[in-house]
């Protein structure tokens, strides 16, 4: 009886500690979000979204150039990173198995995931920006795509390997080809996990500043030319937050809240699509 009571006491004690740890983490999360709402909501206006960048000392203007630039850079990075990451993860799970090459790729992707983002930025600077002689928005997209690929690759690999082999065998027994089995059976069973990995990778790159400083740099003017320096919300937010002008600092808070809730919105939309479209 004493042993039962001791186990119940230990179980309750660990449960209390776990709950307190979760509440401690949530406290900081709500503190950050609350500060963003308090500082950022007052800075939001229509001018922030459609206005051109303000001149020094000017109290009018917005973040149109940075919002468009951030959207283009992240969108191109996503178009590069998602197909490469999913296809690489599919190869590891469905073709590579536990071969030496597959295990080497897995270890390499783990190493790349832990590499500081500034290292990725300097690498792309050396192979793209320096030979071209100027900063480019496309270079920023490539640097962000490199950061996305390992996350999607490992998530896809893990999710596909969790699919029961009996599903594959049943599809093969019905005469389906390997391509059809992967596309219509394996992907459908693992789509929620794959989409989660994609969302995590987009959230990871959405707030990166260091690699963009070495690649796309910044631009004080509106541009859609990805082969020229391009503004981004993260770099613009950093520049405005460090400026001595109060209005620029307000725009920095506005950029912060746009980034935060943009990533949150992308998470929600991705999960809704995965749940209602692919689970039917």
List key phrases describing it.
MetI-like fold, 11 helices, 0% strand, mainly alpha, 280 residues, single chain
Question: Which H/E pattern describes the elements?
Answer: HHHHHHHHHHH
- Helical segment tally? 11
Quickly name the level 1 CATH class of the largest domain.
Answer: Mainly Alpha
Largest sheet: none
Mean pLDDT: 90
Could you tell me the number of beta strands?
Answer: 0
Radius of gyration: 23 Å
N- and C-termini, Cα separation = 50 Å
What fraction, in percent, of the residue positions are helical? over 70%
Strand-pairing-aware structural class: mainly alpha
Describe the structure.
The chain has 280 residues and is mostly helical. The chain has two domains: 2-43; 47-276, MetI-like (MetI-like fold), CATH 1.10.3720. 77% of the residues lie in helices and 0% in strands. The protein has eleven helices and no strands. It has helices spanning 2-40, 46-50, 64-96, 100-114, 117-132, 137-161, 165-173, 178-206, 210-214, 233-241, 246-276. The mean pLDDT is 90.
Concise synopsis of the structure shown:
With about 280 residues, this protein is mainly α. It has eleven helices and no strands.
